[in-house]
Every structure is written in C-alpha cells, then in structure tokens.
C-alpha cells in the first residue's frame, strides 16, 4: 500500500511552502484516525478551509 498526498500548488500560491508543510503536519497527526486500507482518504484543506487537494491510501507498492 501507499499513502498519497496531493496539494495543488496553484491553489496555495500565496503560501507555496507554508501551506503544504502545514497540511503534511496536520495529516501526520491525524492519519491514525483513519483506516489504513485502500480506498481510505479525505480532502486536504488550506488554512482558510478551502479544498486544495486530497490524500488517499492506494493498493500497490
């Protein structure tokens, strides 16, 4: 399985370094609340609570 984190950099162009870092820290702290199995996932939100990407668990290497 693999963990995939997607953030549209165009969507966070006002803070292209800070927002992906914040999203990664948030997901790292909360991933334990989700089933780690293919199909699990959720929307990534920026600090203004706007959807800017997603994360998901996929089958495969």
Structural features, described:
- It is a single chain.
- The protein is an alpha+beta fold and 61 residues long.
- The protein has one domain (2-58).
- The chain has one helix at residues 18-30, and strands at 2-7, 41-45, 51-58.
- The chain has a three-stranded antiparallel β-sheet, with helices on one face.
Strand-residue proportion: 25-35%
Radius of gyration: 12 Å
Span of the ends, CA to CA = 6 Å
Task: List the total number of helices.
Answer: 1
Order of helices and strands: EHEE
Overall number of domains: 1
Report mean pLDDT, rounded to a whole number.
Answer: 94
Structural class assignment:
alpha+beta
Please provide the count of β strands: 3
How does the overall form come out from the CA principal axes? elongated
The low-confidence runs, each spanning 5 or more residues with pLDDT under 50, are none
Strand order of the largest sheet: 1-3-2
> How much helicity do the residues have?
10-25%
What composes the largest sheet? 3 strands, antiparallel
